[in-house]
Amino acid sequence: MSWRQAKSGRAYPHIEPHPKSQTKLRDKLNPWTLWRAADEVIPKLNRLLKGWGGYFHYGHSTRVLDRMNHFVVNRVQRWLWRKGGCARNLWPTTPRE
Fold first, then answer.
1. Which residue ranges make up each domain of the chain?
2. Residues 6+ away with beta carbon under 8 Å from 54
3. Alpha-carbon distance 89 to 60, whole Å?
4. CA nearest 53: which of 77, 76, 25?
């Protein structure tokens, strides 16, 4: 927790997930392998993210949750891309949908 200055000039306690907690979540997303089915991985991933977001949604965590959302979407997209056997040189041209 740190104290920040609001636009009105009043100080408020700024609370957001610690960087160590964010790193632990990112580390839990790494051990996916291509042989696991998406139907097996996605529900477990959703449960993990829902629990993490529910625990840390109090306070001023909008920026952190947005960064983690971007990271997770990118990671799942790359995992599905590789699982499908697509060439890596076409990766930047694929839409996020």
1. 18-93
2. none
3. 38
4. 25
Residue 72, classified by CB atoms within 10 Å of its CB into exposed (0-12), middle (13-18) or buried (19+), is middle
Q: Are 56 and 64 in contact (CB under 8 A)?
A: yes
Q: Which residues of 32-68 are buried (b: 16+ CB within 10 A; e: fewer)?
A: beeeeeeeebeeebeeebeebeeebeeeebeebbeeb
Structure tokens at 24: 């632990």
* pTM exceeding the 0.70 threshold for the entire prediction: yes
Written as tens digits, the pLDDT of the chain (97 aa) is: 566 677 788 887 778 888 999 999 998 887 667 788 888 888 999 999 999 988 888 777 888 889 999 999 888 888 888 777 776 666 565 566 5
58: which 2 tokens? 């109090």
The count of C-alpha atoms lying within 13 angstroms of the C-alpha of 89, restricted to the half-sphere facing its C-beta, is 0
Number of H helices, E strands in the chain: 3, 2
